[in-house]
Design a protein that fits this description.
The complex is a heterodimer of chains A (393) and B (60). Chain A is of the alpha/beta class. Chain A has ten helices and 16 strands. Chain A folds into three domains: 4-45 and 96-169 and 260-339, FAD/NAD(P)-binding domain (3-Layer(bba) Sandwich); 59-93 and 171-258, D-Amino Acid Oxidase, subunit A, domain 2 (D-Amino Acid Oxidase, Chain A, domain 2), CATH 3.30.9; 345-392, no CATH class. Chain A has helices spanning 14-25, 51-54, 95-108, 158-162, 232-243, 289-308, 318-342, 347-362, 371-381, 383-392; strands at residues 4-10, 30-33, 48-49, 65-75, 81-93, 112-114, 117-124, 130-137, 140-151, 174-184, 191-195, 205-212, 215-222, 247-258, 267-268, 271-273. In chain A, strands 1, 2, 6, 7, 8, 9, 15 and 16 form an eight-stranded mixed sheet that branches. Chain A has an eight-stranded mixed sheet with strand order 3-5-4-11-12-13-10-14. The radius of gyration of chain A is 21 Å and the shape is globular. Chain B contains two helices and four strands, in the order βαββαβ. The longest helix of chain B is centred in the first third of the chain and has 5 residues, at 16-20. The radius of gyration of chain B is 10 Å and the shape is globular. The chains are: A alpha/beta (393), B alpha+beta (60).
Amino acid sequence: MSNRYDCIVIGAGPAGSMASLILAKERHKVLLIEKHKEVGKPLCCAEAISSKGLSICGEVDPDWVSAEIHKVLLVSPSGNEVRVSYPAAGLVLNRKIFDRGLALKARSLGAELKVKTQAVGLIKDNKGKTCGIKVKENGKDLEYQAKVIIAADGIESLVRRWAGINNSLSLDEIGSAYQYLLEVEDIEEGCVEFHLSTKMAPGGYAWVFPKGKGMANVGLTATPVFTHDLKSKELLDFFVMKRFKKFAIREWMTGGIPAYTRKSKLVKENLLFVGDAARVVDSLSGAGITNALLSGKIAGKVTSEFLRDGNVSQEYLKRYKEEFLKIKGRELRFYSFCRKIYLRMTDDDFDQVIEFLKLYLNTKKLEELTPLEILKTVLRSNPKLLLLIRHLV
Amino acid sequence: MEQLRLKRELCGECGGCVAVCDYEVLELANNGLGIKDNLCVKCNDCVIFCPSGALEIADE
């Protein structure tokens, strides 16, 4: 079999599989590689996504979805609650099935999928241009060539490092997350919970995402600069003991959640970065699946256009960044700004915000509001937050 | 002599430690997290980040 491809995609998560799927659909020769022996494992994700976000995949396989979300519960540090109905707010995925399903969909359209195949370096031609990758495939050292490389190799992206892009995140630009899959009794199916407290989850929050059949993803993210030697696992253990009377741990997982910053790079020459490798994550909530899918889709589309027209220069690939940021740039920058405010908020601020939301949301139909609109209203509601904004702008 | 150590049974292979390391000490391969100890400056960032306490700097 030839070792030449139109495009090589590194990493078979949602972003990589989405890019491969789009390219395969357009009949390009695509190689999708995954370093693990199975797609979808290990899992580092809370699995929640909006219905609109999942629709980026096109036809949704019902097996991808564990549960639907109809309600949102916010709990303040003092225990004050705001519970709002939000019909068809979103879904909790089964990422193991979803990731595998998306990769197999790309394969069924013609992408070549290789597991246990790890990229270990880039190959440059005599002009210094990237023309392929070196891999370790089932223990063998091999090389594959391609016109375009799409890096979907996650938060730990080594492709960024090999491309000479400043790869590291500072300790206030990353969430340190720990999650259990719990079997629990006292949860409301369809209602996702967010618990805010600077003591319980410094620079982050704890969540409960029901998955149906008495199971729930229960996790906590904290910003490492604020945790003072306490590990996210320890903080989560405190939360779980407080929140649930009876529980059984079925699985555990850890996660690093990158924040979107101005350093986030999407394109370098013929290398395109998607998903967590591009750091296109909502910096406030840490949600990343929608942006992973969208970045993969647009990267695949632009690469396909570039490959189809042999006369355009490599500069054409920058359209991926332009098109993605045209749709998501404002939102990513706004959430990044909100994160800066969030990290400065006290428990009193959280209590006031929840109190305000209780009054505000009682007068509104939530399905008619976007999360962005709600956030803007919250920021305007509190003089201290307005002062913080003035300080940060 | 101090050295960066991994308690493999606690590592969730999330890759966050790789992302915070400025010195390319850590790499996540298909067989788990690898440490190039000769590059480590013991800055402690990966230890502070690690959600499960899988990394520590301790005497050899």
